[in-house]
Amino acid sequence: MLGKLWGEGRLEDQPCRVGSLKTNLGHLGAASGIAGLMKVALSLHHRELFPMLNLNKVHAGIDLAASGLTAQTSLEKWPEKDGAPLAAITSTGLSGSNAHAVLQAMPEHDMPYFDYKNTSYLLPISAHTPEALQQATRNYAQFLAAPAHPTIHNLCASASITRSHRLYRSVFQGQTIAELSNQIEAALSTGSTFSQGHITMHTHTPLRVAFAADIETSENWATCCKHLLAEPAFFALISECDHILDEALSWSLMTYLDDAHQEQRLSEPAIKQIGNLVLVLGLARLWIQWGIVPEALITEDMVLAQAISNLAAQLPLKQVFVQLLQQRVPELQLESLDSSDIAPLLLPIFSCDNAEALHAMDCTLILELGTTNEQTPEKLQEIPWLTVLQSGEPKTYRAELLATLGYCYQHGAAVDWRQVYSAPFRMVNLPTYAWQRKRTWLDWLSVEEISTAPEEKYRTAVVETSSPVSATAEPATLRQQLAELAAGDRTAFLLSHFSTTIMQLLELESNPQLQREDTIFALGLDSVTITQLLNHLQQQLGCALPFTLLFNNQTLGTVIAELLSIIDRPATEKSMQIAHQPA
């Protein structure tokens, strides 16, 4: 079939290469298909043809050359030709299920990449142990010191999005690859990354965040909003609020930010109140989208608390936003909306004076949604209190946000990195996880269990559980037991023997009580267990059996009938039949 599909019409010096992963990894059962997919994807990525092992002789009935195929037995570069490389994967099952997929390699030229201008990136590195974290950091240092390195956007997006994040964590921040490299080298030379709080480990109490939120009257709200529009989550929140404002007031905040002279129909105090309100809600949406979800709120404004609670629960914002406008800007004289469908508050609300309650809920971080750096209340000084956007420098806003996010990440936050790096990126081949070279052993695993050949283990187990005769020094083989039975009883006996054997092979808790009408492939056997079953039968019967015995017969009844016919044949006839079987 593969020859007809991919081999026909090929030149003799350009055959289709054929390989198998089973010779490299062994039998993988249900994982064989995905393993084959991974092998082909890696082959396309590296532009190399991987060899299969231990192929000494091709079956005499298969003419690869005539089919336009050849076995891939050595590592080679992918043949040069026009167009992107193509490869196919075929996966077949004993039950007759077949799957075939065709993969095409990515173009070798770089895709357009995205970089934030004049801002920084976070490079997270994590590991299972402090030693592994230190080694992983060294690997990144060597990787970044190489002459050819990726863009900082591709590097940080790949490290953040495509890697799992372990218990021990470190994070580096910079605007360029050189800055990241210098920070990593400095950390490795001083050991600060691994001894002064840059390593954190999940505890029984994970990072628990409370948002501190009150509507300020900041004069630079417009500058903050303009520069935060580059963040997709913030832009989405302002767009949602702008739509509500346009419906209620026929006034656009987005237009005002673009050109204030076009939208002067509202008073400056009213615009300032609207702008500061949207800024706080936008920051709340941004943190929530990045994975920093509050478990409590510190505020005196219950309507604002309702709005942030809705954002955290991904509930509609319109009704509660209009309530905030009515409360904060009464001069707008907005009509009240139906508030019957406003969801109840889903987050606990505290005041700054209620420090005991915050300590009781094990709050580990207070994140202020604002632009001022007010003094932390004395009662809450034991809990870290972070305020972002306090520098007043728009160019540093994203850097300040990422610095706070890095703190959260180091303390165990499950950051949604796809929201942080939402722009397209090209995946980078990152340094691999360091091999720990530590002995790992399952205490419950028996040495005798793994050292006994499967056919021997199952032969012994089946003989002990299925033999109807009294135990003797030498247990009777299956052939001896059949010889002692009447012809009419042998089918039922073999059916019982099959049930017991299959129970042992599949490690079932009870005997499946098979029937003659049961089909072979409905029993849950795969190629390995079928081979073990065949080996067991050959050992117990003391004769060679054709490998096709369990494939050519659809039901247990027909398998048993053919098995009995083989047993009853003269020895010379059986040996001749086995000798003429194809290899």
From TrEMBL:
GO MF annotations, alphabetized: fatty acid synthase activity; phosphopantetheine binding
Nucleotide-binding recorded as keyword: no
Annotated PROSITE patterns: CARRIER (PS50075), PHOSPHOPANTETHEINE (PS00012)
Keyword Transferase on entry: yes
Domain annotation Carrier: ranges: 492-567
InterPro entries linked to this entry: Ac_transferase_dom_sf, ACP-like_sf, Ketoacyl_synth_C, PKS_assoc, PKS_NRPS_Biosynth_Enz, PKS_PP-bd, PP-bd_ACP, Ppantetheine_attach_site
Superkingdom classification of source: Bacteria
One Gene Ontology term from the biological process aspect of the record: fatty acid biosynthetic process
Keywords, alphabetical: Phosphopantetheine, Phosphoprotein, Transferase
Protein name in UniProt: Carrier domain-containing protein
